[in-house]
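Please go through the sequence and fold tokens given here and tell me how the chain folds. Record follows.
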Amino acid sequence: EMSASLVGSEMCIRDSGNPHYQQHFRTLISAIDNRQYVDISYESKTGHRVHHHYLPCRLEYSIKNDKFRLLGIEQSNRNGDRIEILNLDRMKEVELLPAFVSQIPDIDRSIRNSYYKEPIRLRIHTERNALERTMLQFANYEKNTTKIDDNTYECLIYYNQKMETELLIEVLSFGPMIEVLGNERFLEQLRIRLKKQKLLFSQFL
């Protein structure tokens, strides 16, 4: 994960086809540094425009998508400090608001509190630089990696419901280089997704 202090370089900012991407990035960096609320107009996955006030807490870079995303807290959220995740390339307008907080909430603690009781357990084989690739791919997740032997590592990844679908896709992208050993919830979701993929593939045969 990357905080505002680590992503200030211009080389980190990609326009992603969005002419306002760099401007939004700089506005959010300023808001994080000054603990300031922002007004964000955002296009949802369904194409609808939504509009809320957020306290930006962190910018994270996704290596997989080559894009940044914002972790923030909605000002009117009745569920307390629940973390919202917004992709920068879907932001249409970002404006600073004259509202500040004295301290950014401890979002790491909020995220940890939302984790499932069991992490997923992966066995990683080191062929074709699989270990290096997985560490880059899963850089935004809290994890614990242990060496089993010269060719094998075990990795525990901690996650919650919001992370689950993306994590499934990322794990599947590694094919046989990664074995999923647990937990049972994740294994079941993996089986369901593989069945859907198999059914979809069979329709084209």
